[in-house]
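Researcher: Let's walk through a ligand-bound prediction step by step. First, I give you the protein sequence. Second, the SMILES string for nicotinamide-adenine-dinucleotide. Third, you return the three-dimensional complex as structure tokens. Ready?
Model: Ready.
Researcher: Here are steps one and two:
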Amino acid sequence: MQNRRNFLATIGTIAAGAVVSNPLKAAVLSEGEKLKLVLVGTGIRGNSFWGKRLVDEYGDILEFVALVDINPGRVKYAADYIGVGKDCKTYTEFDDMIEEQSPDLIIVTTPDATHHQYIIKALENGVDVLTEKPMTTDEDKCQEILDAERRYKRKVIVGFNYRWSPYNTKIKELLMNNTIGKLVSVDFSWMLNTSHGASYFRRWHGQREWSGTLLIHKATHHFDLLNWWIDSDPDEVYANGDLEFYGNRRDKSGVNCRSCNEKDSCAFFWDITKSQTDYNLYVKHEQHDGYIRDNCLFRPEINIYDKMNVNVKYANNVYLNYMLTTYSPWEGWRVAFNGTEGRIEAFLDVPYLEDVQISQEDMHRAEMDQSGDQDQINKPIILHKLWGEQEIINVGYSRGGHGGGDERLHDHIFRTPDAEDEYQHLAGTRDGAMSVLIGTAARNSIESGMPVKVGSLTTLQPRAKRLV
Ligand SMILES: NC(=O)c1ccc[n+]([C@@H]2O[C@H](COP(=O)([O-])OP(=O)(O)OC[C@H]3O[C@@H](n4cnc5c(N)ncnc54)[C@H](O)[C@@H]3O)[C@@H](O)[C@H]2O)c1
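Model: Step three, the predicted complex:
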């Protein structure tokens, strides 16, 4: 049998970030041999989506050989939760793991600001990487990843799951087919509610040193969708952002929910002891790292924005207006595309436009559900040609697993890596970087009050047509 590591090396010689290829495409496995995976970061996303779901759905073709997390309690808990085989080892140090193991792929699901460390160490050790979004949290780390990918001739996949949902894919198809002529401008608003939106401020995400702010952590999903839909690179960014609602409010005591003396009066009180999953995953292992999962939303350490507005001029002269709100009464999103021959409008979960009403909590729970048991519903996209009638295009959609995107991303990477990628769903470091760079440019713009050129941030230069 051809040596798998050397075999993969032959497809890893592509210029850094330039071409997206699935590193597992050509993996040659002998009869009964499984793809060897390592998971770094055994929190909620790693354990559920990249851990348990992979073992449950693809256990016939892959296996975890190691789990790594700095929290010794959580990594042991993860082994049991994921249901790894008896030979899978747990580590608290990546370096110890890589001394002993020879994985085919390392999956990185640690907090955002630490992704680059593990991406680069994996590449240095000759292993391909799959990283959760955002690829990283600033322009310097972006550059380090791009350089490492080029130097070590290995590939990185960025897990942009939102691209894979049928609804978002339909928008891509309409734009790819020039259904509204030449695209000229885009208006995109994302509303987070006081449940899911607030949860970012409870967690490590509330500190920019971990998340890079929601302009990176959350908006990376949206900027990636926009870059992919618009099919061009961002050229210039101007932004505003502020922290007004959450954060250091003097009238709050600033302790975590469990120990707070305002439990009865605070609308945001959240009892973590009532959630078995969160209790087992976080509270039981607090003593090892001091990470408090039910932190106060009004603690002084919060230093991210809770309202953000970003204007982007793309290299193909498309203008984007983007708004992210974090304490809306309902959660959902709206996008409108203006073209020389018409307009497309798309929206999800806008309550006054929905046939079926669902509570905000139930909606988020359904979205995170990986079981695949959710009902298919039709969601409309409105296509209105100049001087024509409006047309309603219904797209079959399931709420679970990020609109059905999660499952399709997994299938393409692991089950059918050779399948044609007609809509350019798979993302590599160039796409990972372009999305992060809008966020970092926006942050820089908020601080300086000036527009920021994306081409000034790294060696990547914006192109009128996105490079795939
Ligand atoms: N694509 C999506 O829809 C989606 C959804 C949720 C989370 N995510 C991403 O997944 C990643 C993990 O998020 P989460 O919600 O699971 O967070 P989490 O806090 O539940 O888990 C993070 C884990 O990383 C560990 N960790 C912290 N610092 C570390 C370090 N330096 N080295 C190794 N391990 C470290 C923690 O102990 C914890 O177990 C983030 O990058 C997040 O953006 C993506």
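Researcher: And what stands out?
Model: The chain has two domains: 4-160, 162-246+303-402+420-456. The radius of gyration is 22 Å.
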